[in-house]
């Protein structure tokens, strides 16, 4: 399998390969790869990975379920955190789990979920004060965690429990990225490993508490957990106890971290682009003239707010790198890959390709006007059978929250300088304190 090998990215070090760059400046390193092709080899210690950034190669990897699967050491580490949930299970388990979870995200339930989104956004903003800095990344996560728990499980988390869940998730998402690029991290008796294991225990106990609370109340409130408890597969079997916990963990992560990342990026990008801010304020002032929280019925009249979210997702897709392992020798982008090869579909690079998005580094929500999304070039929720089930849920929540914030507040960075993305399992903007100024 040495014929037609993809180009090897330059700059690798003896023994370490490209590991130092992936740990210290991963996005800057990734930005250099398209110059060497749509499929590029990188070395992480003794291992090789293949980074795909071309639309055809990415689509092929994400849709060929016989040649590529969610297996190998990387997904083993993810499943140690998330379990065998819908976002991490091998393809053999996916159809059954998807059939069980899918009814919880049918379109008819979204207006009901939106009521909780509106209420939780209003409750969050009630604690903001003019001139008092708020970390919008943390605030966005507080909001989406509260919405996830309330809509999915008809429950509320007390602030200490919510903060413990947030802090644990932050450690885990960083820790998984470290373990992907540095597998030996689990073998070294370091404080970071101890923190990771404590966070994992906190996360699992938090998920167990959500399920236990739901069962203790014993009332079917039509939420997602009730649907999961009542669900049966084609053979009439319910979810096993460990499967139930895995699905709950996956839904909390998907409902909280990915949407909060999109919202936090949007708030920062709007503050940095006065013309975008002007257009957004004009729209929300017309729809929400009294500054009330945005509701489900307002969504059709908030197209610009939706485009702001779309553009933030283009520049900073939460699922910025999706990996698969080859199950047999395959041909990809003219190259021959052996069985067991790790292929990383880099959506961060795909969605910044100049032939797909002119001026790709610019934040321009109007590029999405009139359906301006190139086929196969915009995949913030993945693609194919494993595409995120909750995409409409997350988009609705992000748009409602963005519009509500913009109707009441003008945000400005509390300190000069750009925000540095924090690459981890989800691409987060990291801490970003901002100063709210009341618009009304």
TrEMBL record:
The keyword Iron applies. One of its GO terms (molecular function) is monooxygenase activity. It comes from the Bacteria. Its cofactor is heme. The keyword Heme applies. Keywords: Heme, Iron, Metal-binding, Monooxygenase, Oxidoreductase. Heme binds at residue 388. InterPro entries: Cyt_P450 (IPR001128), Cyt_P450_CS (IPR017972), Cyt_P450_E_grp-I (IPR002401), Cyt_P450_sf (IPR036396), Cytochrome_P450_Monoox (IPR050196). PANTHER family: BIFUNCTIONAL ALBAFLAVENONE MONOOXYGENASE_TERPENE SYNTHASE, CYTOCHROME P450 FAMILY 4. Belongs to the cytochrome P450 family. This is Putative cytochrome P450.
């Amino acid at each position: 399998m040495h014929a037609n090998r993809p180009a090897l990215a330059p700059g690798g070090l003896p023994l370490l390969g490209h590991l130092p760059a992936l740990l210290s400046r991963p996005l800057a390193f990734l930005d250099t790869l398209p110059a060497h092709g749509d499929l590029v080899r990188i070395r992480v210690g003794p291992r090789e990975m293949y980074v795909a950034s071309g639309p055809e190669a990415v689509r092929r990897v994400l849709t060929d379920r016989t040649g590529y699967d969610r297996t190998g050491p990387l997904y083993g580490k993810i499943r140690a955190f998330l379990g065998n949930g819908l976002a991490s299970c091998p393809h053999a388990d996916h159809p059954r789990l998807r059939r069980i979870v899918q009814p919880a995200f049918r379109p008819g339930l979204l207006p009901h979920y939106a009521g909780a989104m509106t209420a939780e956004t209003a409750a969050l903003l009630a604690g903001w004060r003019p001139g008092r800095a708020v970390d919008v990344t943390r605030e966005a996560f507080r909001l989406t965690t509260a919405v996830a728990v309330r809509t999915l499980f008809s429950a509320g988390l007390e602030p200490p429990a919510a903060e413990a869940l947030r802090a644990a998730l932050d450690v885990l998402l960083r820790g998984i990225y470290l373990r992907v690029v540095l597998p030996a991290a689990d073998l070294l008796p370091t404080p970071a490993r101890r923190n990771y294991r404590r966070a994992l225990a906190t996360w699992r106990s938090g998920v167990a508490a959500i399920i236990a609370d739901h069962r203790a109340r014993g009332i079917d409130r039509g939420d997602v957990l009730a649907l999961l408890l009542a669900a049966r597969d084609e053979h009439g079997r319910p979810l096993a106890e460990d499967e139930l916990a895995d699905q709950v963990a996956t839904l909390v992560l998907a409902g909280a971290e990915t949407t909060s990342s999109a919202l936090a990026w949007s708030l920062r990008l709007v503050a940095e682009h006065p013309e975008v801010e002007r257009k957004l304020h004009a729209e929300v002032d017309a729809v929400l003239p009294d500054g009330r929280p945005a509701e489900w019925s307002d969504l059709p009249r908030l197209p610009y707010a939706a485009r702001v979210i779309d553009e933030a997702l283009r520049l900073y897709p939460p699922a910025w790198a999706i990996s698969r392992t080859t199950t047999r020798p395959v041909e990809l982008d003219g190259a021959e890959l052996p069985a067991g090869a790790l292929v990383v579909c880099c959506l961060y690079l795909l969605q910044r390709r100049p032939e797909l998005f002119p001026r790709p580094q610019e934040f321009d929500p109007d590029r999405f006007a009139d359906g301006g999304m190139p086929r196969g070039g915009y995949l913030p929720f993945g693609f194919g059978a494993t595409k995120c089930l909750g995409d409409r849920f997350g988009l609705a929540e992000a748009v409602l929250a963005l519009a509500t914030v913009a109707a009441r507040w003008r945000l400005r960075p509390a300190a000069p300088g750009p925000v540095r993305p924090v690459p981890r399992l989800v691409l987060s903007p990291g801490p970003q304190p901002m100063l709210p100024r009341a618009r009304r």
